[in-house]
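Renewal narrative, Specific Aim 1. Our central claim is that a sequence can be written position by position from structural information alone. The example that follows is taken directly from our test logs and has not been curated for this report. It begins with the structure tokens describing the chain, in the order in which they were read.
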């Protein structure tokens, strides 16, 4: 019996992800990098660590504001519920292998706000697309060595795509014609309509998050913010690769170290600093997730107007 190509591709990707993570772990053990990593962390001042923590906390609040902006009718003033969604979703993404933690977002929206699955998935897609576009535009704008024409063309193309896609969805979506794809497109159009200030919140969130990561990398390496910013962008660009290490280990560090090389940071030092940053990111997300579990959760007891409308769309 032949194995379907899609199954074979998934097995290959998962196998490669595990292999990348194991290779990174073996490198750490063989080269005895843990001692060098501990020495790097010992030199980190409490002030540098405190600023980075404050930056991450602010980014969580900005992310929650993005959710609250889109689901303000369903939330009915419950900003804390939106913060709970963000913190638990972020923790799940950072600790569940193979991006499985993304499922937490639609599940939490359904439990807390009664959001239909199609609407929640479309919102998650729009969130991640906005994230990817903002990071890509920032990378093209500041990446060293790019010809100015290519830099401008890339930034302009991404901005044009970001402007055109939601307008295309709103103009052509019609759930009465077509099947599941048409309903998903309608839900996507609804997400772009409801997120009034989505781009503003996304840009603010990434500006704060990247600045916090750049600050911490600069402190770990004893270098400047420009070098730290290059490493932070490398980390986020690595996060959108089709193949990820288990919980990001291996691919995350490789992305940071590769982005730091043009700035004169040796590969070994870049990998150590990247691991320290990665552990910091995971620690912040897990601690914030634990706090979110302590927040009171008020589940949806009745469908909201927006939810009822989405339900009608899904069941014409």
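The sequence written for that structure reads:
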């Amino acid at each position: 019996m032949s194995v379907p190509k899609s199954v074979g591709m998934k097995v290959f990707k998962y196998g490669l992800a595990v292999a990348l993570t194991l290779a990174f772990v073996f490198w750490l053990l063989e080269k005895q990098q843990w001692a060098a990593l501990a020495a790097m962390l010992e030199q980190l001042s409490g002030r540098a660590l405190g600023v980075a923590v404050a930056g991450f906390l602010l980014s969580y609040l900005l992310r929650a504001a993005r959710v609250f902006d889109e689901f303000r009718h369903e939330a009915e003033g419950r900003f804390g519920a939106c913060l709970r969604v963000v913190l638990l979703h972020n923790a799940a993404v950072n600790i569940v292998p193979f991006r499985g933690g993304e499922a937490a977002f639609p599940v939490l929206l359904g439990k807390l706000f009664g959001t239909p699955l199609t609407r929640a998935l479309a919102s998650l897609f729009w969130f991640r697309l906005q994230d990817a576009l903002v990071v890509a535009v920032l990378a093209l704008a500041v990446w060293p060595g790019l010809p100015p024409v290519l830099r401008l063309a890339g930034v302009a193309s991404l901005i044009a795509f970001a402007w055109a896609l939601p307008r295309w969805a709103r103009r052509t979506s019609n759930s009465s014609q077509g099947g599941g794809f048409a309903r998903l497109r309608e839900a996507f159009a609804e997400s772009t309509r409801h997120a009034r200030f989505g781009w503003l919140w996304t840009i603010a969130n990434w500006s704060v998050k990247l600045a916090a990561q750049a600050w911490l990398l600069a402190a770990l390496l004893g270098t400047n913010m420009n070098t730290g910013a290059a490493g932070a962008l490398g980390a986020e660009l690595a996060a959108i690769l089709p193949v990820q290490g288990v919980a990001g280990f291996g691919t995350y560090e490789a992305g940071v170290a590769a982005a730091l090389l043009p700035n004169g940071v040796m590969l070994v030092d870049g990998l150590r600093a990247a691991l320290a940053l990665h552990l910091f990111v995971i620690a912040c997300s897990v601690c914030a997730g634990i706090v979110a579990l302590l927040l009171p959760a008020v589940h949806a007891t009745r469908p909201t107007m927006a939810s009822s409308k989405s339900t009608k769309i899904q069941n014409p």
